[in-house]
Design a protein that fits this description.
The structure holds 2 protein chains of 2 kinds.
Chain A (H helix, E strand, L loop, with lengths): L3 H5 L2 H11 L5 H11 L8 H13 L3 E8 L2 E8 L1 H31 L1
Antiparallel strand pairs in A: 1-2
Helix pairs in contact in A: 2-5
Chain B lengths: L4 H13 L5 H21 L4 H12 L4 H43 L5 H17 L1 H19 L1
Helix pairs in contact in B: 1-2, 2-3, 4-5
């Protein structure tokens, strides 16, 4: 499982990518899906997830749809057109960063 | 096994007692608690009370209020930085006006009337930007100390 510090910077790209693959998702579903896709290596903390989701919504990248389950409100998040435009740049930057890390640490790691 | 309405009220009551006042965040967290509790009741065969305690440890180990504080920080940080930029620019202009007024009057470039107007503009600029901002900061620090006491 990766540390919270490592995950902080990549939470937004993860959320944007997931929501670009699925039409809409709610918070618990996002946590479970990331856990499943990463083979339990990435466990998103709720304390990081919801502030990030709300911040993305405030920036206009996400919109919400409320569905009532009995008296309980479930909020689904989905990408806005602005949010869809953010997915590719965010992923490109992240993958470029991963390549840079590989350049920095790759040779050293392979010799150890 | 679904969380009942009474149990949902219990979860909402917990969130409010923790100080979560943002309605949207309350709804998100309440639903998240329900999902985790339901998973614990089904998967780990716990009753509601035990599942609720477990959910509190998993979802809000540092308290639910901290999530709202993180959210407030993310939502306001850009505005706070922008406000500081504006105040610092006005502060610079105010001090520059005062220095120019003083130095140009001393060196005889400006007469008393013009340098007085320039100094007044500087004082006014400081009075409407840096001064209220500084007092507001002092008030916030003071209120924080009272809350922590």
């Amino acid at each position: 499982m990766y540390s919270r510090e490592l995950l902080k910077g990549i939470l937004k790209p993860i959320i944007l990518k997931l929501l670009s693959d699925q039409s809409r998702m709610y918070g618990y579903e996002i946590v479970q899906e990331v856990k499943r896709l990463s083979g339990d290596k990435i466990l998103i903390k709720e304390g990081s997830l919801y502030p990030t989701l709300h911040a993305l919504a405030a920036e206009g990248y996400l919109s919400t749809e409320s569905v009532m389950i009995g008296k309980r409100t479930r909020k689904y998040y989905k990408l806005t057109s602005d949010g869809k435009g953010q997915v590719q740049p965010a992923l490109t930057e992240l993958l470029d960063f991963a390549e840079t890390l590989q350049v920095l640490f790759g040779p050293k790691l392979s010799t150890t | 096994m679904m969380v009942t309405d009474d149990q949902l009220f219990q979860i909402q009551g917990f969130l409010m007692s923790e100080g979560v006042s943002n309605v949207g965040l309350q709804e998100d967290l309440a639903d998240h608690f329900c999902c985790v509790i339901e998973q614990c009741m089904e998967g780990e065969d716990l009753d509601f009370d035990d599942a609720f305690k477990l959910a509190q440890q998993r979802i809000t180990p540092d308290g639910a209020k901290e999530i709202e504080e993180d959210l407030d920080y993310l939502l306001t940080i850009k505005k706070k930085i922008m406000l500081r930029k504006v105040v610092y620019v006005f502060g610079f202009i105010g001090v520059l006006n005062l220095l120019l007024a003083f130095s140009m009057y001393i060196s005889g470039i400006l007469n008393a009337e013009v340098s007085g107007l320039l100094a007044m503009a500087g004082i006014l600029t400081l009075a409407i930007s840096v001064l209220p901002f500084s007092f507001y900061q002092m008030y916030q620090r003071s209120a924080q100390r009272v809350r922590e006491a």
